[in-house]
């Protein structure tokens, strides 16, 4: 697949994330900020290869991804003290939680920042201060775990190094639904993302539809925008969107085919 086409599709997806500058319940009364500042949460270095350079990191591809949609990026160090973190949150317009390999349930400091960010996002949006949150892969898993307030919502999937098309749900395809993320995506792009293997998955955990349906905190809060089968035929939720707030999460990696050139991966 031509990288330029993929670039446009993902560029568009993130642009929508930034631009859907209104809460569903109150319409679009807010002025559009076309120079938003997006925070990206760092992670503890997960391998010895990373640790050579420092104890925490942000993969460059996420920064490029956000910048390619016209936003600016500030790093949010996961181990910042609470006051600094709050001050930082008050100074930015949204947050991206990247993919990675953190066992966040074993990282109390990281976990604490994650909850603080989540509560901040909910509180801001509740009082009408539009504050989007995006999760990619691990970020998806973090969002659903924190929303459900348990890490037990995650189960194993066989989806490493696995590029597939999205299987969009009626929530996207039914024009009378009010889903936001794909709403303004041109039909040609929707066709491409639905037919070409351009969504790169690289996860061993995920969220099943059964778990989603079992947890009120999940199915009352999110809509499922896309479903996919893993390599073993088990269905995982690949894209979700909050029913009420600008909170979006994808299991695939939009930033990888665009900004990571690594021949050992299927990108
Ligand atoms: C993560 O933080 C939440 C909220 O403070 C807490 O309830 C939970 O026990 C923490 N989990 C872990 C694994 O530290
Ligand atoms: C489309 O969505 C509307 C509103 O949610 C619903 O009433 C209708 O049944 C849906 N149609 C299909 C084909 O799913
Ligand atoms: C969902 O709930 C049912 C009924 O309580 C239970 O039997 C099943 O194991 C649960 N499944 C998951 C994946 O949580
Ligand atoms: C993908 O979509 C088709 C058509 O809507 C559906 O029959 C199929 O079960 C879906 N696959 C998954 C993994 O949800
Ligand atoms: C994952 O899928 C691959 C390809 O279908 C298969 O060879 C492998 O055994 C599966 N792994 C697990 C743990 O099921
Ligand atoms: C990932 O998939 C690609 C394409 O199928 C393959 O060439 C590559 O060897 C795989 N890498 C790993 C680490 O499995």
UniProtKB/TrEMBL annotation:
Catalytic reaction(s) noted: (6S)-5,6,7,8-tetrahydrofolyl-(gamma-L-Glu)(n) + (n-1) H2O = (6S)-5,6,7,8-tetrahydrofolate + (n-1) L-glutamate
Listed InterPro entries: Class_I_gatase-like (IPR029062), Pept_C26_g-glut_hydrolase (IPR015527), Peptidase_C26 (IPR011697)
Locations listed in the record: Secreted, Extracellular space
Active site: 137, 253
A GO CC term attached to the entry: extracellular region
Annotated EC: 3.4.19.9
Tree of life domain: Eukaryota
SUPFAM superfamilies noted in UniProt: Class I glutamine amidotransferase-like
Keyword hit for Secreted: yes
GO annotation terms (biological process): tetrahydrofolylpolyglutamate metabolic process
UniProt keyword annotations, A-Z: Hydrolase, Secreted, Signal
PANTHER family: FOLATE GAMMA-GLUTAMYL HYDROLASE, PROTEASE FAMILY C26 GAMMA-GLUTAMYL HYDROLASE
Family assignment from sequence similarity: Belongs to the peptidase C26 family.
Name of protein: folate gamma-glutamyl hydrolase
């Amino acid at each position: 697949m031509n990288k330029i086409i993929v670039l446009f599709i993902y560029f568009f997806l993130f642009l929508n994330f930034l631009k859907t500058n209104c809460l569903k319940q109150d319409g679009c009364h807010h002025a559009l900020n076309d120079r938003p500042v997006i925070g990206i949460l760092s992670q503890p270095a997960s391998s010895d290869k990373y640790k050579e350079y420092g104890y925490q990191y942000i993969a460059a591809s996420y920064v490029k991804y956000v910048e390619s949609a016209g936003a600016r990026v500030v790093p949010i160090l996961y181990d910042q003290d609470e006051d600094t973190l709050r001050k930082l949150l008050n100074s930015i317009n949204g947050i991206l939680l990247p993919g990675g390999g953190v066992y966040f349930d074993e990282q109390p400091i990281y976990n604490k920042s994650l909850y603080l960010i989540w509560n901040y996002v909910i509180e801001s949006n509740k009082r009408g201060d539009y504050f989007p949150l995006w999760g990619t892969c691990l970020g998806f898993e973090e969002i659903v775990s924190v929303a459900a307030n348990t890490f037990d919502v995650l189960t194993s999937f066989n989806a490493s190094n696995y590029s597939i098309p999205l299987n969009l749900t009626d929530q996207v395809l039914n024009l009378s639904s009010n889903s936001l993320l794909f709403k303004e995506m041109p039909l040609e792009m929707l066709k491409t993302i639905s037919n070409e293997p351009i969504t790169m998955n690289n996860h061993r955990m995920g969220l099943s539809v059964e778990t989603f349906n079992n947890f009120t905190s999940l199915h009352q809060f999110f809509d499922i925008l896309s479903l996919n089968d893993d390599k073993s035929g088990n269905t995982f939720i690949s894209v979700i969107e909050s029913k009420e707030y600008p909170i979006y999460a994808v299991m695939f990696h939009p930033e990888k085919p665009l900004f990571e050139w690594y021949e050992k991966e299927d990108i």
